[in-house]
## 1
Amino acid sequence: MRRKRLLWKLYPAYLAIILLSIATVGIYASTTLKKVYLHKTAKDLEARARLIEKEVAGSFTNENRALLDLLCKTLGRSASTRITLILPSGEVLGDSEEDPRRMDNHAHRPEVKKALAGQIGVSTRYSHTLRKEMMYVAIPVIKEGKIIGVVRTSIPVTEIDTALSIIYREIALGGVLMIILAAAVSLYISRRISQPLEEMKRGAKRFAEGDFTHRLLVPDSEELGGLAEALNQMAQQLDEKIRVTTEQRNELEAILSGMREGVLAIDTEERILMLNHAAGSLLGIDVSTAKGHTLQEMIRNADLQRFLGEVLTGQGPTEAEIVLHGTESRFLQVSGTVLSDSGGRKIGALVVLNDITKLRHLEDIRREFVANVSHELKTPITSVKGFVETLREGAIDDKENARKFLEIISKQADRLNAIIEDLLSLSRIEQEAEKGEIQLMEGDLRRILEAAILDCETRARERNIKVTLNCSDEVRVKANSRLLEQAVSNLLDNALKYSEPGGIVEVEVIKDENEVAIKVRDHGYGIPPGHLPRLFERFYRVDKARSRELGGTGLGLAIVKHIVQAHGGHVTVESTLHKGSTFTIHLPNPHKGLPSLPTM
């Protein structure tokens, strides 16, 4: 239904009230005026009758009929009034309009009856003699205290109506003018009332559209002025509250977006209310389209569905671990709690998702490391213990076997010591790197490499292996010389172990604008491709039997990796079976936008 403007509700109401009031006043005024005019006419007729009474009182007898009739006609013409003289018997003595002899007896006329009774008779009725509506006033003619006749004066009512109609026209014209004026005034007043409201309506629309900076003009009336001020105050408060709410929402979104943990909110029907980008990434859900959909529509995972059911039916926090299966299994630690409104009514659940895949992987590495350490330590200990028991049981008396057994025990003790030393070294390197305690200074790389080659010279000579160095004297690196020398020594030691006697191990340095690469290349057995990704893990061996036979602890390459990482670099390996392997230490070029450091 179309709504009307307030103006067209107020204006017709005002106009109707004014029209009704003017019509009522007009009718009342016309009626009253008519009564007053008739009363005045009656009084005028009575005055004329009194004058005629004085003229005819001395001669009011049947013998003077002709004289009285002539007098009536003469006075009637001059006064424009019908004059009738009537005897107490009702017989007409004279009349200004008709022949009295042809007129009916008037004894029963209302006004005559009252006059014969000594009163003034007034009557308005139809005259059968003149055939028109007449107004009659009759008075008694009294002589010596006795009523000797009646003098009646009358005029046609049409004359009264004509005079009244002129007055009515003037009243009507005045009423029309008043209506026009009142209509204009009503329209003006209606506009004065409705215009501020229309302004408020337009302002309220701007408020609804979010423009809270707009302010309404305050009218001078108390009610509308109070309303405008209330609306302005409401707009200011809404602007402030919306601004605060927007800031809080933006802060919340920024916090949720920056969280590594996934946050998911659902209602009691498991429809998604909110989730951050981390949750979308963990669950594989498009954040922009997920809201309003049930979680089952977005992801199929029985463990997650079961967990959400437990959270929604429970009262307190709930925790669990679930696995998301895909191209790679992902382990999640989920914590959930019930969401309640201000009245304590349950409205849904909030779930926090933590990706613990890396922790699981680290835990697996820790377990494997503990198992490897236990195995690496247990093997020489078992050997030592076995030979000690053999010696205690009498083999010590056999000097040849005793010496052999003692050499084996010494060898296993050296192996234990090497394992422990490598473990301590690896732990120390990790701790110092984490604390930033490893001091790096710019120095001559060739000098470090020559020291590492010199450290391995005895083993190289024993296997008749030649170690060559290709490095410019101008190459400088930012390094801890002791640790870098240890890393290169470990790589050279591996190269010497797995090279054929009489072979060559090459050490080459390649420098570009970004990095300095130290390559240690052998021409030995090579490494199968499947072992390369795990080659730098602790205690990882390609050929465990051969490694132990050659005296390796399984920690050398892990130490190399951590030393290189402490220098801000990384280590890579390339290998071809039966052709050899190349280990490369990649260090940052110290002259790439960095100031020179003190020389070692």
## 2
Amino acid sequence: MNRLFHMLHALYPRERTLAIAATAVFLLAGVARTALAIQTHSAWIPVAAGSYREGVVGQPIALNPILSANPADQDLSMLIYSRLTDFTTTIEADAESHTYTVKLAEDLTWEDGAPLTSDDVAFTVKMIQDPDVHSPLAASWRGVVAERVSELQVTFTLPSPFSFFHETLARLPVIPSHIFGTIPPANLYLSSYNLEPVGSGPYRVAGYDKRRDGFITEYHLIPNERHRGAPPFIQDFYFRFFPDGNALQDAFRLRRVDGFGLSLPPSSGAPTFAASVTERIPMPRSYTIFMNQTAKPSLKDRNFRRALSESIDRDRIIRDAFGDEGTPTASPWLAGNEAPPPYDPAVAREALAAAKVDDKGLTLAVPQIPALQKTAELIKNDWNAVGIAPVNIVTAPPNDFADTVVRGRNYELLLFGNTLENPDDLFPFWHSAERLAPGLNLSLYQNAEVDRLLEMNRQTGDAEKRAKNLERIAAQISEDHPAAFLFSLPYLYIHRDTLEGLKLPMIVTPADRFQNIAEWNVARVRVLQ
């Protein structure tokens, strides 16, 4: 070092400056080349660390996936309980798709160490089917017989062939028989395990906090070390609960939560926040006006029904009621949906003129959800503009609406949203056998050819044949005009830009946003490849 110092001092000042500059350039070039090499031959990978706070409107009531349709319960249950296909090794169907044999992985356990076996699977189905349980999953399991073959094997025998049963199995949450097996089915709701659950999912409950008035403010989840799947990266997952959407969005703005979802986009469009990302996740759901021809003689006239559909400006509804977050629909089959023809009230007036009805007055039933009530008002204005009047709008709170209006078919026109558990299975919504509750044929539609095609569609596993059947089904239903198809809406999920790992091409329910929760991550390190 001394020798280099003496050499520099032996140089003239200009030579010394040039030498120092050249050395600095050489060193900087080396640093740059090293940095480039690291960047080229390395990658950021997620690591097990960090926390995440999910904001939810509402309250958990029963963290039991076969009991509750409450969104807060479903969100938590998605992380705490596994679905059947999370721990199966094989699923085999017989040639007629009538009996399915499922084999479980070995050495499965619940988070408390108790073994998870085929007994738990059969018990879960039995509880779902028990009328005293009132499970929201009961319709999907009607007539299915689940039988234990061995500790690791269970069979499902269907009342008739059903080619979509693989999807039904994939959505079956399994609950522990050693926890709930001694409780009378009617008393399942009373179990303390509905707030302190024992599951087999990627997370388990570490604790929860509530105010003195009973309002639960937070659930804290940590990784379940006995979960069969890949361990989640996020080490502390919190659910924080709020009384309404405004309080939740204020908390996000103040960085007290890291993510939240919106089932219905607001009329102002997706809210914007600093350093955040908005995911628009497709859902197989559509909003429709169902026409009950048995409740109003004028609705028996096909041209009148056509006029009701043709006179609706769907683009304006999506713009004014949902902030341009939606897609107009013209078909019951969303995968084959084509954009409706451009809005033209003259076409509706022609259909109305061809209708042989004297009484053009109608009553439209809609749940008390602000966005849907606004939709109803816009539709009323469209109908009035072409001469369909008077139009009365009746509303009820969502829970009362489902029980008193929908189940009893107590409406002339019904504005309602349907979600297709299997997007290619239209049977529950359009087969004549589903006209009465608990069926979902809300137009009380009857067409023998459509019934035949719907039945064929459930019996074939051939994707090409199924698509052709669906095209014919959709064309016939659209030709009959039993309903006015309006729009489909995405699910909006807003989160901090530090979150990565979401892979959500489509979800059936809002809770499905957590279906790849193990891949969510908020901490990453760079490693050489």
